Amino acid sequence: MMNSEDQTISAPILDMLTVANEYCYFLENVEQKKKEQVLMFMQRILPLLYLKGSLLPSIEPEYPEADERFVAEEKWEVLFTNLRGIFGKDDEFMIIDPQYINDTEPLKASISENLADIYQDMKDFLLLYQRNTHAARENAVHDCEKLFASHWGFRIGNILGRIHFMLHDEPDEFPSF
Asked: What is the pTM of this model?
């Protein structure tokens, strides 16, 4: 029987599961999509992922040994390759990444790599949560919340501006007011 005080089944977590599932489902079928479809979907889902990730509660798992990762490197590589094929020459762009030692020099980034990394974290979250034990749910939420802070939340920030620019092809000059 579920305890009504069970934080692992709270609304913010269920919302996160819903958005993560939509993200993963879309990417698992991405080879059938055109670049503009992918960009438009990402423009809409990534801010939702970020918002839902920022609302996750901090849960310390009682049994950290129940933690698991599921997405193998081969699955990541297939997704990355499919995305790279869709984005082509538009895949790479420059960012300033404060996580690196020199936070003033631009680094080359990849939309495909960032989306595949986010996919891996979301799919692992979904699959562990679906184990449907309290320990698995605690670990899934804990990992998702920690990885939001250190990994995928930052990646969303890296690529959202690039996606916006690709969709709207902003001119170099701003209109004068």
From this structure: 0.89
